[in-house]
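In the previous chapter we treated chains in isolation. Here, by contrast, the input contains two separate entities that must be folded as one system, with a combined length of 636 residues.
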Amino acid sequence: MLTYIARRLLISVPTLIFISLVIFLLLNLAPNDPMAQVPLTVPPEVKQKMREALGLGQPLYVQFLKWLIQLFWIEPQVFIDYMFNTSFSEGKLRVISWQTRSPVMDIIVQRMPQTLWVVGMSYVVGILIAIPIGIYSAYKQYSVFDQVGTFVTMIGYSVPPFFTGVFVIVIFSVQLGWLPSIYDTTHTVVDWETFKIQLKQMVMPVMVLALQTTAMINRFMRATMLDNLNQDYVRTARAKGLSEWTVVMIHVLRNSMIPVITVIALNVPAIFGGAIITEQVFKVNGIGQQLIGAIYANDLPTVQTITFMFAVLIVLFNLLADIIYGILDPRIRYD
Amino acid sequence: MTDNNDITAKPRSKIKDVWDQFKSHKGALLGAIIFFSIVLLVMVGPFIWPFDANQIDIRSRNQGPSLLHPFGTDQLGRDTLARMMAGGRTSIAVGLAAMALSLFFGSFIGVTAGFYKRLDGVLMRFTDLFLSLPLLPLLLVMMLLFREPLSEAYGPERGMFVLIVVSIGVTSWMPTARIVRADVLALKEREFVLAAKASGTSDTLIILRHIMPNVLSPIMVSATLGIANGIITESALSFLGLGFPPDFPTWGRLLNDAVDYLQQFPERVFWPGLAISLTVLSINYLGDGLRDALDPRMRKR
């Protein structure tokens, strides 16, 4: 197992470098001028100087290497400085946003909590709804409950978040006026009243994202439960005279959870991707909105860094899913 | 199994078997009917409907539903039903074209990887790499970067169409490739392939005649899911304002336009959203039924 983890970690390094290369080339080979917004009255020499100040005068491989060093060497140093009050990174050039002229990572750190709060909450809510429904629909296959559950799942699967989001805004904000349509991130919780406001503004984005999670995990949960319910060991357990609760909730559930947990791990990055759209609908100023804003403003370093962070998430959670699978299921041996 | 002993009975064709199984899945049948009606409506509708999607009639702007305009009119007095049909044409065309492209890449890479052992490792690592790319951010970046050069080359609408179809195509072929490869790996060891090889059939012919027809069913199932994926992705891009130009209606674009008037005319978001959802829902049911119908293990009764 340890050798497997070590090998997988080693493989993920070239994967990440390849991905960063793809992102970098895609952004830098495209015809695109960051000086396009600068007024025409600025003389060309000055423009050339500005370009060089942004690190654009050099050949591509130098730019790529510099970006890699900034990302993998200088940024971790900044992080260590921040954690332990050291000064490794002093005077070193960090990845600078062209939009705000401040380090990209600082903005990401500011934006991350909003995204994590909404996305993380929705994921937990989605899982908590999906698993009991999945268990019960599999146990009562073809019952009314199962039919309704499958239909709702199919809807959650098919209706895109930009429609469910807008739809709940129309109903609960415009028509009924119960909930605010815009997520206010400056709001701080100090007492019961502010907590209620926070709860109100979180309900819609969380539920919209949770619907997607629920649909996906419920479908999977039901399928694996059905697979396991027809196995011989279930008949044995029943024949031994175990109660139905023990058979289903302990024997079958534990076996069914193995693939479900890996799916939960595998889909974390996808949920972050979906959050881009949901953040746009509810105007949450999280990392997804930062990405969209940077794309509109032609801010290449920010776009590069955020896209790369999404890639890191995907690689990381793929690895995590494989490891969890190996630990939970003794039948799986990787070496 | 009743006509087994009766030699004179007509042999059952595979297509009829598939159709019988498909028919028994009520949701799938309904999905197929709804999907094909929507396609028919958006293809034929604009020829029958008297209003043009881009015909501006400023005096009758912001109208509610009436006999003349069943879905009402927008802020420039354009007929919403006409725009919905024109938008559906684009959205469904994008979905179909992107699906075709992604199926082509997917089956090509899947068949090559499955059939030629030497290429298997390389191609599958390549697929894995693509699977770990963050697709939505990359799609957004592609839209931003290649929008202008392609608009200049092919005109704003056609350029955007090419760009969206190609970007969805190159970012969605991976699941198809994996499924096809797994099937080809199993098929390759079967006797009929061995027999074909022994009789001196060339690799290309073996793939085209013996392998491809047998992997058709997983490809068809991914085709349905591919259309749904294409429609949703296109709508998401248009919704974020990075898709087709503003005066060119697609379902996502109409939804995006309607969001600006959410306070005054909340009912406007309903039609495009419903159209997208209904189409995707019907396609997903169609795919479900198709998967069951094409799986011979399900058909044995």
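Chain A touches chain B at residues 15, 18-19, 22-23, 26-27, 30-32, 154-155, 157-160, 162-163, 166-167, 169-170, 174-175, 181, 269, 273-274, 276-277, 280, 291-292, 295-296, 298, 303, 306-307, 310-311, 313-315, 318 (CB under 8 Å). The two ends of chain A are 7 Å apart (CA to CA). Compare these points with the single-chain example from earlier in the chapter.
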